[in-house]
Amino acid sequence: MTSGFFEGIEKVRYEGVDSRNPLAFRHYDPDEMVLGKRMEDHLRFAVAWWHSFAWEGGDPFGGPTLVRPWHPQDDMGRARMKADVAFEMFEILGQPYFCWHDADIRPEQGSFAENLRTLEEITDYIGEKMQASGTKLLWGTANMFSHRCWMGGASTNPDPDVFAFAAATVKSCMDATHKLGGENYVLWGGREGYETLLNTDLGLELDHMGRFLNMVVDYKHKIGFKGTILVEPKPQEPSKHQYDYDAATCIGFLRKYGLEDEVKLNLEQGHAILAGHSFEHEIAVAAAEGMLGSIDMNRNDYQSGWDTDQFPNNVPEVALAYYYILKAGGFSTGGTNFDAKIRRQSIDPEDLVAAHVGGMDVCARGLKAAAAMIEDGGLDAALTDRYSGWDSPEAQSMLASSLDEIAARVLAEGINPEPRSGRQERLENYVNRFV
């Protein structure tokens, strides 16, 4: 028995670039081979439970606009209905994965014990639907930012009781993720930061955050969870400053607390923009350090100063993101989670399906463009040429010498380098050939 929410919407199929069907894939063919692997296996798409099913359409200036049959989300009957609708959409889209926070899938009950009971109940229900459908869990996580108890942070909270509540909450979510066969577990520090330094012991909070994450890793091994632990960089919003500002900041944090071999990064397009970076920059930084784990695919409105979480529609941006993902070897346990939401005025069920269809097509076009650039080899050749001077024995030996030895060589050989063009415009023109 179906919920009827998506009544009249058929399963989305690949119809090719000439299709005029608004609910058909024009570029995403899950079985198309790209660099020797099925497109579906490269992209590993996931639906975000929170934006697609839990979000009610509110914003800082207005209340809910999305009136759904499972609203208000305050009892287990509606939680099960929401799960029914979710799996119907997964079937319509052919989505292989989904992601959740605990608060997305179970109602808030006012106590940890009751929240644990309802989390266990709903994950049993979701598990049955996963087994019947074949849809898998890309990752689970804990919402430690919405409830008022988290207003001063979770692991960084000045109140030890909140730290304890956070530890218990994460344990319960890790248990649920493990039970459902999740391939990753994510920690997003939604309020792990500060509003003002005037009431903040920054060093103490960072130490507590580092200890907390070590506890998470220890528990992962204790329960035999084979998935990857991920942390997600975000520079600001809702806090004035958040400790997980960007990929480089997170990598430094992980190394400081001895976690560099245990934890990788879940990177989001919108968060990269908030940090003043491009998405490909964040991916390249994580890949260079061996810490690329998974991505949240979305976009921000470049005319707004906040995290608007829109579906991706910029093929050149997406192509460069997947270029660096493919260069790093592609995803292992990670994937492409649509951490994106429809607009407040897009109130029809069809809008939710159409948004994912468009996002999946954009990612497919980006992936194919990235693969074509790799096969062509033009960017690799340009890099090899630019750094070719370092191939000489003299250049390599210089790295093992000292400043005074190098200075003596410069004087003896009369070295006076002339600048070489970085050829940026030619490389940008090269990329445009593929996108």
TrEMBL record:
Catalytic site positions: 101, 104
PROSITE patterns, A to Z: XYLOSE_ISOMERASE
Catalytic activity: alpha-D-xylose = alpha-D-xylulofuranose
Note on how the cofactor is bound: Binds 2 magnesium ions per subunit.
Protein's cellular compartments: Cytoplasm
InterPro entries: Xyl_isomerase-like_sf, Xylose_isom_bac, Xylose_isomerase
List of residues binding Mg(2+) 1: 232, 268, 296, 339
Example GO biological process: D-xylose metabolic process
Residues reported to bind Mg(2+) 2: 268, 271, 307, 309
Alphabetized UniProt keyword annotations: Carbohydrate metabolism, Cytoplasm, Isomerase, Magnesium, Metal-binding, Xylose metabolism
EC numbers: 5.3.1.5
GO CC terms of this entry: cytoplasm
Cofactor: Mg(2+)
Major localization class: cytoplasm
GO MF term (any one): xylose isomerase activity
Top-level division of the source organism's lineage: Bacteria
Binding partners and assembly: Homotetramer.
Similarity comment text for this entry: Belongs to the xylose isomerase family.
Name of the protein in its database record: Xylose isomerase
Gene it is expressed from: xylA
